[in-house]
Amino acid sequence: KQWERALGLLSDGKACGTAPTAVTFSAAISSCSSMGRWAHSLEILREAWQTTEIQSGQSCISEFTYLAAIGACSRGGQWERALLLFTEASSQSLAPSCEALNTALAACSSAGGGKGAWLLTLQLLREALAQQIEPSVSTYSAVISACEPSGSWTTALALLQEAQVPPNEITFIALIRTCGKAKQWQQAASLLQQAEASGQQLNVAAHHAVVAACERVGHLASLPRMLHGLADPRELLAKGCCC
Known about the structure:
The structure is a single chain. About 45% of the residues are buried. The protein is mainly α. Residues about 230-235 and about 235-243 have low confidence and may be disordered. The protein has three domains: about 1-35; about 80-110 and about 115-165; about 165-240. The longest helix is centred in the first third of the chain and has 17 residues, at about 40-55. Helix 4 runs antiparallel to helix 5 (about 80-90) and helix 4 (about 65-75) packs parallel to helix 6. It contains 13 helices and no strands. It is elongated. It has helices at about 1-15, 20-35, 40-55, 65-75, 80-90, 100-110, 115-130, 135-145, 155-160, 170-180, 185-195, 205-215, 235-240. InterPro entries: PPR_rpt, PROP1-like_PPR_dom, TPR-like_helical_dom_sf. This is PROP1-like PPR domain-containing protein. Keywords: Repeat.
């Protein structure tokens, strides 16, 4: 296996007296990351820190080392560890990139951080902005997605207004689903209309989120005309699309 070979090469190099570098450790962590071996990745990261202490003056840690470790935790569903690693990298003045930020945020959103996930992701976004890391549309989409489980629709809309980058399809879907979760059917419908007006082609799941939001509050008959081209709302709900 690739990750086992990477660990073997790292071990063989040290046995031969070859001093490992940040590139060496980053490559080993990336190999483990590709297979979701987050625990092995963290072990290598700890070893990199230990080696740095031994090899005074030669750092075996870089922003890429942390990026690889964050990616490993993200793939392994370890969202809390991914967030902690990003914060740790920041505290070590390693200037984590927007890519590292997005990876940590995506881990929280996709791994089911729970209803409190949006607070953690929002805090992480604020920390990144304070460090002058320029967020991308993926950054805001990830934070907005984290708002869905708790139905924090006002925060999601505030983030849309705050973003300095235009929203894309993923952003709009996250917003619509969050508003739908909070039974804010008018906001969800308005966002769908806004997305279509900007040329975004949203999938059936986005339309279904609006329909479901209307159904939750008994306003199924009040669906906007923008949904006219779709199947009957009740038929759409019967398809079993997840929202």
